[in-house]
Amino acid sequence: MNAAENTLAPLPADLYGYVDLLDDADRAVLARVREFAEQQIAPIADECWDRAEFPHQLIPNFAGLDVVGLARDWPDRPARSRLLTSFVSMELSRIDPSMATFFGVHAGLALSSIDLCGSDEQKQRWLPAMRRMEKVGAFALSEPHGGSDVAGGLETTVRRDGDDWVLDGAKRWIGNGTFADLVVVWARDTGDDQVKGFVVEKGMPGFTATKMEGKLALRTVQNADLSFSGVRVPEANRLPGAETFKDTNRVLRVTRGGVAWNAVGAMAGVYELARDYAAERVQFGSPIASYQLIQDHLVSILGNVTASLGMAVKVAQMQDAGTFRDEQAALVKRQATLMLRDSVARAREVFGGNGVLLENKVGRFFNDAEALYSYEGTKEINTLVVGRAITGVGAFVGHAPAKR
């Protein structure tokens, strides 16, 4: 047994020891993930981010961790807790939020869509290969003209034609989109005006994916513009459990909590970077860690990560108990990413001008935080979800522009 499999050192940012809630078997899994992230992702994370390239060579070793689909039952592996899967996301984000996002899109959004909404035959056809990362998944919901309003403004359409469905439209910001083997596409059925889910496979005629250029966050993630021009999707690729947007939201409810864990991991990462730098950087004859204002930044970051981690742990426990609600997902995502924004700004400030150099890593986290803050529900949308729950009154009101 590798030494990492029987020991898991506490993270500096886990001041209250939340990881101790995991049993020994789960801690061994987490130790393998940490070892992989620190030894294989960390050395190339900055270069991949700088060049906006995905490290495809890591996929076989990533797959070897066998952490895809941990929360579901497999014939050879019983389901593990959501708490473990969440800590896996945290460990990846602590080193590189881009790789954590790749994993979340594949193992969270794409796999969960098929698991929650697919038939038994579809699960048998696709999920084992996705678990082994032999087939990589993507999730296509956002559109060029629809982000927060995608539920009501979905423009991608699908119509039944014999034994097939014909897809037309476009999607935007699709993580893993340039190289995914399977893309879960959400489209509005022209027959009944309901949102339905389909699995589009790479190479289907009329389907193209174009890499988005010029991103300033999560640059390693290969976000794509997708185009569907008369793409014929067989009935066998329609997800029978995805009949309305409520079914789409079932998937988002699960994964939104995961984004909070990505935020927690990123905060843990910048806390370690800032703390270590403060101990080494000497100004005015003393390490800057000896100055009160620097200690205030470090303690504030630690407070942010600790508060967010406590919320996130409770969310994972509620997921395991089956009591998790939309407003709870929305609140933890909103709060954790707000605290992430504050934390990366403080960490960057600890580094001073050196914080804008990629070699010091904190600038990468600073930029990546903006993407985590925005995707899977903006602060405003998540605020309204929670507001509706606590007041009983929906405030999702659109205002037409004033007439002149």
Count of helical segments?
Answer: 12
Give the C-alpha Rg: 21 Å
Beta-strand share of residues? 5-15%
- Helix residue percentage: 40-55%
Major beta sheet summary: 7 strands, mixed
Oligomeric state of this protein? single chain
Q: Briefly, what CATH class of the largest domain?
A: Mainly Alpha
Poorly predicted spans: 1-5
What's the CATH superfamily of the largest domain, by name?
Butyryl-CoA Dehydrogenase, subunit A, domain 3
What does this protein look like?
The protein is α+β, with helices and mostly antiparallel strands and 404 residues long. The chain folds into three domains: 10-131, Butyryl-Coa Dehydrogenase, subunit A, domain 1; 137-244, Butyryl-CoA Dehydrogenase, subunit A, domain 2 (Beta Barrel), CATH 2.40.110.10; 246-391, Butyryl-CoA Dehydrogenase, subunit A, domain 3, CATH 1.20.140.10. Helices cover 51% and strands 14% of the residues. It has twelve helices and nine strands. It has helices at 3-6, 24-51, 59-64, 82-95, 97-117, 120-131, 150-153, 245-280, 292-321, 326-351, 362-374, 379-391; strands at residues 137-140, 157-161, 164-174, 182-189, 195-201, 207-211, 224-234, 282-283, 286-287. Strands 1, 2, 3, 4, 5, 6 and 7 form a seven-stranded mixed sheet that branches. The chain has a two-stranded antiparallel ribbon with strand order 8-9. A hairpin with a 2-residue loop joins β8 (282-283) and β9. α2 (24-51) packs parallel to α4 (82-95). It is globular, with a radius of gyration of 21 Å. It starts with a helix and ends in a 13-residue tail after the last helix. The model is unreliable at 1-5 (pLDDT under 50).
